[in-house]
Amino acid sequence: MGALFHGPLEDGHFCTASVVDSPGRSLIVTAAHCLDDSTDDVTFVPGYRDGKAPYGVWRLTASFVDKRWSDNSDEDLDVAFAIVAPQGGKRIGDVVSGNKLGLNPGNGRKVRLTGYPDSQDEPLSCFNTATRVGTTQLRIECTEYSRGTSGSPWVTGVDRTTHIGTVIGVIGGHQQGGDTDEVSYSSYFGKDIGALYRQAVAHGG
């Protein structure tokens, strides 16, 4: 899990993303609205804290969003996968372990929600239950999840040793993640998100 930046780290982060397990070991997941302006000059900094990049600064080379998002900002498809360029002969998945992608998570899953409010330089974590809203959204109550936390992963089944689990959502979706800092949303990870993941994998992610 890490922060997304435009330009130098001192200019501040604007969204959150996380590595997702994939055959190419080069894929991250975030909210589609975080990458509306393409991946130009966007970097991913896993483990970012207090201005430091302990695992390096990684350049994004391509992003994948559903056409219904790019055409109409469909809040039920506010999810993006992005390919991260290798550096020093290593891929991002060689350096930072990725969460498994979880589809059709249902209702009432216990999740860990971690993200970077743009007002602070360290991640904020919350544990709570994600509830389904209709058929297309998930909802969770966690306080202080303000601007910058869009794209934060909703992770279930976290291993106590590896701290890796299954990502079943990202802050986004309804109201681009919610219009208060106490309630967050995610587009539901169903078949359309699965198809988007496979598209990214087919391009080397």
Strand order of the biggest β-sheet = 7-12-11-8-9-10-13
**Computed structural class:** mainly beta
Total number of helices: 3
The CATH class of the largest domain: Mainly Beta
Helix content: 10-25%
Give the low-pLDDT segments. Answer: none
Brief characterization of the structure:
This is Serine protease. With 205 residues, this protein is mainly beta.
Supply the key terms.
205 residues, mainly beta, Thrombin, subunit H, 2 domains, seven-stranded mixed sheet, 13 strands, 11% helix, globular, Peptidase_S1_PA
Helix and strand topology:
Layout: E1 2-6, E2 13-19, E3 27-30, E4 42-46, E5 58-65, H1 67-72, E6 80-84, H2 92-95, E7 100-101, E8 109-115, E9 124-133, E10 137-141, E11 153-156, E12 166-170, E13 183-187, H3 191-202
Parallel strand pairs: 7-12
Antiparallel strand pairs: 1-2, 1-4, 2-3, 3-6, 4-5, 5-6, 8-9, 8-11, 9-10, 10-13, 11-12
Structure description:
- By secondary structure, the protein is mostly beta strands.
- The protein folds into two domains: 2-98 and 193-202, Trypsin-like serine proteases (Thrombin, subunit H, Beta Barrel), CATH 2.40.10.10; 100-190, Thrombin, subunit H, CATH 2.40.10.
- It is built from three helices and 13 strands, in the order βββββαβαβββββββα.
- The protein has helices spanning 67-72, 92-95, 191-202, and strands at 2-6, 13-19, 27-30, 42-46, 58-65, 80-84, 100-101, 109-115, 124-133, 137-141, 153-156, 166-170, 183-187.
- The two termini are 17 Å apart.
- The model has no long low-confidence stretch (mean pLDDT 95).
